[in-house]
Amino acid sequence: MGQRIVVRRVLRGQTGPSGGPAFTDVLGTCLAWDADSCLVERADGEQVRIVLADVVSGKPVPPRPPVRMRVSARDAESHTAALWPTVETAPLGAWVLRHETAPVGRLRKRANSCLAMGEPGRPVPDALAEVAAFYAARDRDPLVQVETGSDVEAAVAAAGWEPLPVGASELWLASVSRVRRALPPSASAPALPVELTGTGPHAIAAAGTGCDPVAEGHAALDRDWVGLHGLAVDPSYRRRGLGAAVVSRLLDWAAEQGALTAWLHVETDNPGGQAFWEALGFAAHHGCRYYAPASSASAGPVSR
């Protein structure tokens, strides 16, 4: 009981398309099972009692993914725009050209690349030519971000662009409330104080007693989604729960603002980070990587 199942049963007194008995399937959660019948609750709340003598077959089915896990890769990635308010965007069909107008420090690939997910509204080689022209006009190397294994990735590769040797990542999602419950009790009473600063939809949580924090993380709200970015802990202060404390402070703030879904990017070559986020209830939604023209992919583009 409690398992999601599908049951095929006979519809007595009815004839099927082939002239034989009629059948129907009932999909839902098994609430009860006894010697005579089973009770199945459909997704809409309707409860169906099925006489076991009418059952033709049945089997368990995987739980239905949460709504947040059913969004498209493009829709999930669109929330990253909230991280950097200085990013200029322009549509290219469903693609989005992104350019950081006032970068601070290193150039970020996500903020200085074309989100190439969905249909660009023209042949992919033509779209890539427009991408190259857009970034050339802004003194940037052309770069596209694609969903790993997608048709767009195959078309970009067929056009002669090559994947960057670094930067492959996965976008992970979780329920804000679930993560807050999964955080250890020590996260609310860290070894060092964690202060929250920020304005509007942006916040920074930092742990430390001096001017230079020893642990820090950033968050940005976009409707009821909150993005976490740049979580870092000084190596000499690791294993003290400061990373969890920073996440706890950011998600407390996000929950107060009405956030329901948390997202972040984890690089594929960071098993430690993956284990940390998985323990808090995050799960990978999709993978993504960057492509550049063959002439610049091996050397690496300006964006890092």
TrEMBL record:
<protein>
    <submittedName>
        <fullName>GCN5-related N-acetyltransferase</fullName>
    </submittedName>
</protein>
<dbReference type="GO" id="GO:0016747">
    <property type="term" value="F:acyltransferase activity, transferring groups other than amino-acyl groups"/>
</dbReference>
<dbReference type="InterPro" id="IPR016181">
    <property type="entry name" value="Acyl_CoA_acyltransferase"/>
</dbReference>
<dbReference type="InterPro" id="IPR000182">
    <property type="entry name" value="GNAT_dom"/>
</dbReference>
<keyword id="KW-0808">Transferase</keyword>
<dbReference type="Pfam" id="PF00583">
    <property type="entry name" value="Acetyltransf_1"/>
</dbReference>
